[in-house]
Design a protein that fits this description.
NTP_transferase_dom; two-stranded antiparallel sheet; nucleotidyltransferase; EC 2.7.7.33; Glucose-1-phosphate cytidylyltransferase; Spore Coat Polysaccharide Biosynthesis Protein SpsA, Chain A; about 260 residues
């Protein structure tokens, strides 16, 4: 099963970083957030990706060209017609289609432009800025169990501020940004049937709007409720939060380390 990742947005709310690179290339723990997302899928055996490029997409191309050819130990023999010889491989067994989908194309349009690369079969889709400890195998099993066209992962995000618990007026506990108990939001990590492409009219369509709304109207959208960790890197504050978790060794989304 192939995985589509949208990595073409301008990331304007993270302008401190995205003025020089696309948001999926902003690093946590010395690796782009895109790498973290792909490692999650790879942990469950899914190594075939189609990445929708847009804003500063050349940065993503350059990273994976170098990641695939320059990682690990090398021998360079200038007298050899093929001077670069690699030793052991120190990277995941990924195959990537890096597809230019336009600087101004919206999320639905980017998904639509990936259609020729996805094949006529079930595929996965996620955004290039969100990490989670979601069990991909359980997500796929849920999708197969209901027979609908689309599965969306519903998550409870972290609260923006810490919570206090009281006994009368006495503070008995202070919880630093716990998972919120109110409501569910779109956490991406979709599983989709190819008929979903028919719900996207063109480039200037937000996937989160008409396509999902019409899938829901037609009774074709189901939610996989993920109670575990999920976080999106929308702002510099979000990046610092993820970096702090990484540095502390508490890396809940790094399922490949467990």
């Amino acid at each position: 099963m192939k995985t589509a990742i949208l990595a073409g947005g301008k990331g304007t709310r993270l302008a401190e970083e995205t003025s020089v690179r696309p948001k999926p290339m902003v690093e946590v723990g010395g690796k782009p957030i895109l790498w973290h997302i792909m490692m999650t899928y790879s942990h469950y055996g899914f190594n075939d990706f189609a990445v929708a490029l847009g804003y500063k997409g050349d940065h993503i191309k350059r990273y994976f060209v170098e990641y695939g050819t320059l990682s690990g130990n090398l021998t360079i023999d200038m007298n050899d017609p093929e001077p670069l010889k690699r030793h052991e491989k120190e990277h995941a067994p990924w195959k990537l289609d890096l597809i230019e989908t336009g600087d101004e194309t919206l999320t639905g349009g980017r998904v639509k432009r990936l259609k020729p690369y996805m094949g006529d079969e079930t595929f996965m889709l996620t955004w290039g800025d969100g990490v989670s400890d979601i069990d991909i195998n359980k997500l796929i099993a849920f999708h197969k169990s209901h027979g609908k066209l689309a599965t969306i992962t519903a998550v409870r995000p972290q609260a923006r501020y810490g919570h206090m618990r009281f006994d009368g007026d006495q503070v008995v506990a202070f919880e630093e940004k716990p998972q919120t108990a109110e409501g569910w939001i779109n956490g991406a990590f979709f599983v989709l049937e190819p008929e979903v492409f028919d719900y996207i009219e063109g480039d200037m369509v937000m996937f989160e709007h008409a396509p999902l709304e019409n899938l829901a109207r037609d009774g074709q959208l189901m939610a996989y409720r993920h109670e575990g960790f999920w976080a999106a890197m929308d702002t510099l504050r979000d990046k610092h939060t993820l970096q702090k978790l990484w540095d502390s060794g508490d890396r809940p989304w790094a399922v490949w380390e467990k």
